[in-house]
Amino acid sequence: MAVVTLAVGTLVVAVDARTWLDAVVLSTGVIAAFVASIRWTAVGIPRVVLPCLIVTAAVWIVGSLALDAHAAFYGISVVGSLYAPKLPRHRVLAAIGLAAFVALVGAAGLLVAPDDTTNVLLLYVLVPAGVTVVVTGTMFAGQVFYDLVEELEDSREREAELAVVKERMRFASDLHDIQGHTLHVVKLKITLAERLLGTDIGRAGVELREVHALVGDTITQTKDLAYGQRRLNLYAELENAKNLFEAAGIYVRVERETEVAARVGELLGQVLRETTTNILRHAQATYVKITLSKSGIAVLNDGVGPAPLSGLSGLSTLRERVADNGGELIVEKGDGRFLTRAQFPDGRSDR
Predict the structure, then answer these.
(1) How far apart are CA 4 and CA 24, in angstroms?
(2) pTM
(3) Is 163's pLDDT higher than 60?
(4) 290 forms bridges with which residues in the sheet?
(5) Are 29 and 76 in contact (CB under 8 A)?
(6) Residue 330: which H helix or E strand, with range?
């Protein structure tokens, strides 16, 4: 913009200036327009704009009324058209006022040369006002495009920030799945080992070794999570859940209607792990029924009291994750029982 402004302004001075005074006056307007164009991309309206606008307006007045320089409008047409679209409000009124000022100053030339009406109207009114309107309209269109580009950039930045937040939430949720599940299982097994110390030391040792192995496996899973390599195996989670429920004295019944689709296995494994943790923490269950189908999993347990359940934020997070992958996670409570069901239509996952 600055290069074009200076190049065209130099051409205007070269063509329209007939004396050194004309050249000085016209050059002053071109320089003011050049300075304003340099600051055009600044945020808001820079302080240089008002002085530049005053200088170019004075150049147009002097050029049209005293020097007979019909191209003296160039400076104000550039400065006004650049910054009218950047005003916070009344942009259209500013553009109309700019064109009106250019036309009225040019029309004032009739007072100086009343006998040359046609020439004054053409060179000092119609051409300057018309050029100003065209340039201003072009700049309005350019400003709209510029604003659109800025909005797109802002939108991309917001999307990037949202993606980072989602990834952090996903990581936190996975870390909660690993650590929370492990801690509750460790607590359960240590409690069981304490009970067995006085009656069956061998079995207590087995439970403590399983705790040791579980902690080691959790450390490995945490490392895999940190490096993005963690993958849950549904059938391993199923076997683990069955062992945990049996260790807690809960009867477990597993029904496999068919093999679960591979694409949804990992998410269903997460649902099963979270549900297992919730049952061990919040329910006084005596039995659990786990049903696997091609498209989903359902876990039904008893031992649920009448009070509203709390601390199930993990399921809320999983509900969003399942929904994001084209499935549905439903939880239902009634008659002392609690049902957790995750299902994907036709066994599909969008991941």
Answers:
(1) 20
(2) 0.45
(3) no
(4) 254, 299
(5) yes
(6) strand 328-334
